[in-house]
Specification:
By secondary structure, the protein is an alpha/beta fold. The protein is built from 9 helices and 7 strands; from the N terminus they run H-E-H-E-H-E-H-E-H-E-H-H-E-H-E-H. Helix content is 48%, strand content 17%.
């Protein structure tokens, strides 16, 4: 009885969240914005990735970041140094961003800027391999990071994150020679969960894979803009 009741509550929460995510995406589509949801466990390198991405792409695209964190603005402060709008969201005890929280960030964006001026919104989700993957926020694509220090088995132990990712970044590859780990086995385990995901090997320290990541972002933006224009015709 309790299990049935709990399952019903979870389904209602996910349904309500999905409605909110669809509404957020409608805003983004109307403004011509592409939204990427960046997800990983704590310490996999999301903020470093965004620092390098903002530095490389801010001259080419109009960028904004919605920055999720449980209690601080430490990551938001790091990203503000790149002279792009950063909208912080503190989730309190919640281990993920949901569509309602991101809707609050969208309202802030509307109040402070003209949203139609922007090309791309990065949502940096709370560090967690479980909940962020289950709660859409209005994104057009999901990006997951997995550090080599987390082990080869994580795609099998936390399948939802990897099943739903459109792009997977295997990060901190410069540490692989010092670990008992097989990068190919990580990729194989990911492919078991998601045969079609784009996999990029990345090192924020050496720069390996960064250009491939930048190219993927640009291609995703171009494809989504084409879809947005097609639906308006």
């Amino acid at each position: 009885m309790h299990q049935t009741f709990d399952a019903a509550i979870e389904l209602n929460l996910l349904h309500a969240n999905q409605e909110g995510a669809d509404h957020n995406r409608e805003h983004f589509d109307r403004w011509g914005i592409t939204c990427l949801n960046i997800m990983s466990s704590p310490g996999a390198g999301k903020t470093v990735l965004l620092e390098q991405t903002l530095a490389a792409l801010k001259a080419k695209f109009k960028l904004v970041v919605i920055e999720g964190d449980m209690t601080t603005e430490l990551d938001a402060d790091r990203l503000r140094k790149y002279d792009v709008p950063v909208i912080p969201i503190n989730t309190g005890r919640s281990c993920h961003l949901d569509s309602k929280m991101v809707a609050g960030g969208i309202h802030t964006l509307q109040h402070q800027y003209n949203p139609s001026d922007f090309d791309l919104v990065f949502v940096e989700n709370v560090g967690n391999l479980v909940c962020p993957a289950e709660f859409e926020v209005g994104e057009h694509a999901k990006v997951a990071l997995l550090s080599v220090t987390e082990g080869e088995d994580k795609p099998l132990k936390y399948p939802v994150m990897f099943q739903q990712a459109d792009c997977l970044l295997i990060t901190k590859t410069d540490l692989a020679p010092y670990l008992d780990i097989d990068l190919n086995r990580i990729a194989d385990n990911v492919r078991q969960m998601n045969p079609h995901v784009t996999i990029i090997y990345l090192s924020g320290k050496t720069g390996e894979g960064l250009q491939q990541w930048f190219d993927w972002v640009g291609q995703s933006l171009k494809a989504n803009q084409a879809n947005q224009l097609a639906t308006k015709v």
